[in-house]
Amino acid sequence: MTKTLFLAAVATGLLASAPTMAQPQIQFGIGPDGRPQIGVGDPAEERRERWRQQRAYEAGRRDAMREERYDVYETRCRNITIQEEDRRGRTITRRIRRCD
């Protein structure tokens, strides 16, 4: 009896101390065609996808703000590209923005 009780306590301790991992979740929903669908999703993958979408949204906002900022100077500014050769024979390209 004590041996069985001891083995049960050890097994419970091993199972309780095992690290829990993110398990896939079963998802129920309505698909784009209007029919009910069942899927299996990974919570970590969903977080990564939300992060990717957020980063793309922020990058788009930064680009829009940059375009708004430079639209003011578009008629008066020009980009000058200078290509030079250094001592080692490599071509170096510099771009300078000149606003008149």
TrEMBL record:
Superkingdom in the source lineage: Bacteria
Signal peptide: 1-22
Keyword line: Signal
Region: Disordered, residue numbers: 29-50
Name by which UniProt lists this protein: Uncharacterized protein
Organism, as annotated: Microvirga arsenatis
